[in-house]
Amino acid sequence: MQQFDLFPEDIRIERVDADANMYRFYRLRLLPDLFGGISLLREWGRIGTQGQYKIELFTDGGEATDAMLTVFRAKQKRGYLLAA
To answer: Cα separation of 11 and 29, whole Å?
Structure first.
């Protein structure tokens, strides 16, 4: 069983602090690309807006999953929580 099969392909996390007027989202998605690889789509911004995005290309699903989990853990340390 590959590591790619053990983890979700779409994660949405949010950081909300009403006192600081902070309403942020961060979304990580693993998507197949046209060349047989895997793309990690990172989207972020203020909740309710389209936000910004960045796409990283990987040849292996395991590498893409590792990169996704690294970003996810870093965001958790900054106060982001899984969105309901």
So the answer is: 6
What CATH number corresponds to the domain at position 77? Answer: 2.20.140.10
Residue 23 in contact with residue 47, Cβ under 8 Å? yes
pLDDT of residue 7: 66
What is the domain range of residue 28? 3-82
Looking at residue 81, its amino acid is L
The count of domains in the chain is 1
Count other C-beta atoms under 10 Å from residue 35's C-beta: 8
Cα 34 to Cα 18: distance, rounded to the nearest angstrom: 41
Pairwise pLDDT comparison (1 vs 25), residue with the higher score? 25
